[in-house]
Design goal:
The chain is built from 10 helices and 10 strands. It has helices at about 45-50, 75-80, 95-105, 120-140, 155-165, 185-200, 210-220, 235-240, 245-250, 250-255; strands spanning about 5-15, 20-30, 35, 60-65, 65-70, 80-85, 170-175, 205-210, 220-225, 230-235. Helix 3 (about 95-105) crosses helix 4 and helix 4 (about 120-140) packs across helix 5 (about 155-165). The longest helix is centred in the middle third of the chain and has 17 residues, at about 120-140. The radius of gyration is 19 Å and the shape is globular. The two termini are about 30 Å apart. The model has no long low-confidence stretch (mean pLDDT about 90).
């Protein structure tokens, strides 16, 4: 297994008297696709929010590329190479598709800011637009370039959320339920895109996902949470056959299938 690129060691997150994440440890290998799965309320989004620094941790440590990030500010992470999408899509509905992607270019191209006109940034702006158009092409949004984001269907909004995260030029991409609500053909396209991003573009991916069709197809390794604690970890075939995982999450029908 490759070196750990992202590492959580004995991470605990509490909300008052509730322990949402209990001494949770997980390593994400550089250049891999890792899935974090489990029932609703298992602690998956809490783990994501702890990594993203939206939640503070009570105990433990989080390191990225060898550096401690447990106390980093959320807005510092894109500059380190970490970007994420959200379970509830976070896009600017009144802006166009291309404008939404350009927002993410701040972390990618120093000095570029679409909200500060008149500054000497013509070359940076041109570079940003070329890069944004390339991302729209990759995510299948080119024909919708000038459409207001609020007018997109759900599948295209999901892809726009991903394109904007990619605009930060991440080396670690955190995806929170990227396949939720997508149709089979859209899931197949997402499978192809994520595989390409990891295998050919070198982006390390950690995803929370309930769509097992996608998880089992692309994940190199799977970690399973239940009631805030890790109950299993391993390659897809190992996790699929684990009795605890079958009982707590997958169900006997899935295991048999």
């Amino acid at each position: 297994m490759s070196e750990a690129y992202l590492s959580l060691k004995d991470v605990t997150v509490r909300f008052g008297g509730l322990t949402a994440l209990d001494s949770f440890s997980m390593d994400v290998a550089k250049g891999s696709i890792t899935a974090l799965i489990g029932p609703n309320g298992a602690g998956k989004s809490t783990a994501f929010n702890a990594i993203s620094r939206f939640y503070s941790i009570a105990e433990g440590s989080i390191t990225f590329d060898g550096a401690e990030i447990s106390r980093s500010a959320p807005d510092a992470l894109p500059k380190l190479g970490i970007a994420r999408t959200f379970q509830n899509i976070e896009i600017c509905g009144r802006l166009t598709v291309i404008e939404n992607v350009l927002i993410g270019m701040n972390a990618r191209i120093p000095g570029y800011n679409p909200f500060l006109p008149g500054r000497r940034r013509a070359e940076a702006e041109a570079e940003a637009i070329r890069a944004a158009d390339a991302l729209l092409d990759r995510t299948g949004l080119s024909k919708l370039r000038n459409t207001r984001a609020a007018e997109l269907d759900f599948g295209h909004q999901k892809m726009l959320d991903l394109a904007r995260a990619l605009a930060c030029k991440p080396t670690l991409l955190l995806l929170d339920e990227p396949a939720a609500g997508l149709r089979n053909r859209e899931i197949a396209a997402l499978d192809e895109l994520l595989t390409d991003l990891c295998r050919n573009q070198g982006i390390t991916i950690l995803l929370v996902e309930h769509v097992m069709q996608l998880v089992m197809a692309i994940a190199d390794r799977i970690t399973v949470l239940n009631f805030g604690r890790k109950i299993a970890e391993g390659q897809p075939a190992e996790v699929r056959a684990d009795a605890q995982v079958v009982e707590a999450y997958l169900g006997s029908g899935y295991a048999a299938g």
